[in-house]
Design a protein that fits this description.
The chain is α/β, with parallel strands linked by helices and about 375 residues long. The chain has a domain at about 110-380: 3-Layer(aba) Sandwich (Glycerol-3-phosphate (1)-acyltransferase), CATH 3.40.1130. The chain is about 35% helix and about 10% strand. The chain is built from 14 helices and 9 strands. The strands form 2 sheets. It has a 7-stranded mixed sheet, sandwiched between helices. A two-stranded antiparallel sheet has the order 7-8. α5 (about 140-155) crosses α6 (about 185-195), α9 (about 230-240) runs parallel beside α11 (about 270-280) and α11 (about 270-280) packs across α14 (about 355-380). The chain starts with 12 loop residues before the first helix and ends in a 6-residue tail after the last helix.
Length: about 375
């Protein structure tokens, strides 16, 4: 039998072993070599009896264990769980905040370093009152922190509040404001502006997002001075009691804005505040706040280890984390707060309009555009961010 050779006439070992010129496409054996290599090929093993046509009509060929008696296994079970409206809203809020929609929804987020945060919680709850309201507002804590808030409002930030007459002296209203500044100083200033400068000295109940409300020390403190966890049920209860409720539709996305995106309002979620205003028949008071972006300018944020501590991110500012906890103290920027004219959506569209998603989204974008216009006007009016 002739030996297979390559194109140069040399003996090809790979062709003799593997056929078809070896392993590479460029090493093909001559045709006569391939013809000489081909020999008798053994016949394939026939199928067993009872498997005509290539099928397997009994399981003898595969073994007796492959035969499943009828009723041996129950039909697959389908686990179905109907979500109520509260859980659907919670899922939507978590998706807007770009968080994992974990189940169960009522389980509080586990915060890392519990031995450290436990001490901070005890510090935040020192001197608590015997009686608090349904949402944890403590009159003793409010009075204790009032001098500090007044110092920040009048001396440190030098807040100029305009349009305060648009806030009603009695009855319910929904204050919708932009959000920024890494920490919720803006919500505290809006709350203090109405309490200090309004003729009726009314209390404002700001809705605090979960990222702040569940923080050790800061969360209990915000709750004791009037903050309420942000959810539709809490807001509806407050408005039913004819209270002033402040909402920040940008949420964590607003607080987490970088310096390059300052004063650019983020998307207002799915318009939950519009549904709330329509169903409760509460007028909307647009509020524009400037100064928070310069108080704690966020240059970057760290997320790779922040979640282990129960935080959405760790901010990087000109002073934090370089100066430690002192780096979270705000810079003395110049603040301006403007309260716009009331918008009564319920009178124009009716409560049933809350079920129209297209209308709700359009109204949310309209309110966002109005607040953006107010913010731009205040920035043009302010001569210097720190003077």
């Amino acid at each position: 039998m002739a030996k297979p050779t390559d194109d140069n006439g040399n003996w090809d070992d790979d062709a003799e072993q593997y056929g078809d010129g070896g392993l590479g496409p460029s090493r093909r054996a001559p045709t006569d070599a391939l013809e000489s290599w081909q020999g008798d090929v053994p016949d394939a093993v026939a199928w067993p009896e009872g498997a005509a046509g290539g099928g397997l009509e009994d399981d003898v060929f595969l073994g007796e264990e492959a035969s499943v008696p009828p009723g041996e296994y129950a039909p697959p079970r389908r686990f179905e769980r109907n979500l109520d409206e509260r859980e659907v809203r919670e899922l939507e809020a978590r998706m807007d905040a770009q968080r994992t929609p974990a189940f169960p929804l009522d389980v509080r987020r586990v915060v890392g370093l519990p031995f450290l945060w436990k001490r901070w919680r005890r510090l935040a709850m020192l001197g608590k009152a015997e009686v608090v309201d349904d949402f944890g507002r403590d009159p003793i804590a409010t009075a204790r922190w009032e001098p500090l808030l007044d110092f920040l409002y009048s001396k440190w930030f030098r807040v100029e509040a305009t349009g305060i007459e648009h806030v009603p002296g009695t009855g319910k209203a929904l204050l919708v404001a932009n959000h920024a500044g890494t920490l919720p100083y803006d919500s505290a200033m809006v709350m203090h502006a109405v309490r200090r400068d309004h003729p009726s000295r009314r209390d404002v109940r700001p809705l605090i997002e979960d990222a702040v409300f569940h923080l050790p020390w800061l969360g209990p403190l915000m709750s004791r001075i009037g903050g309420v966890r942000a959810c539709p049920e809490n807001a509806e209860r407050l408005l039913a009691n004819d209270e002033l409720v402040a909402v920040f539709p940008e949420g964590v996305k607003g607080m987490g804005k970088l310096w390059r995106d300052r004063y650019r309002l983020q998307r207002f979620g799915r318009g939950g505040f519009i549904k709330l205003a329509l169903r409760s028949r509460a007028p909307i008071i647009p509020v524009a706040v400037i100064g928070a972006e310069e108080a704690l300018p966020m240059l970057g944020k760290i997320t790779w280890f922040a979640r282990n501590m129960g935080l959405p991110y760790v901010p990087v500012t000109p002073t934090f984390p370089w100066l430690g906890p002192a780096g979270l103290l705000p810079l003395p920027s110049k603040w301006m707060v403007e309260f716009g004219a009331p918008i009564d959506l319920a009178r124009e569209y009716g409560p049933d309009a809350a079920d129209d998603r297209l209308l709700v989204n359009r109204l949310a974008d309209q309110v966002r555009a109005d607040i953006q216009t107010m913010v731009d006007a205040l920035r043009a009016k302010r001569r210097n961010p720190f003077l």
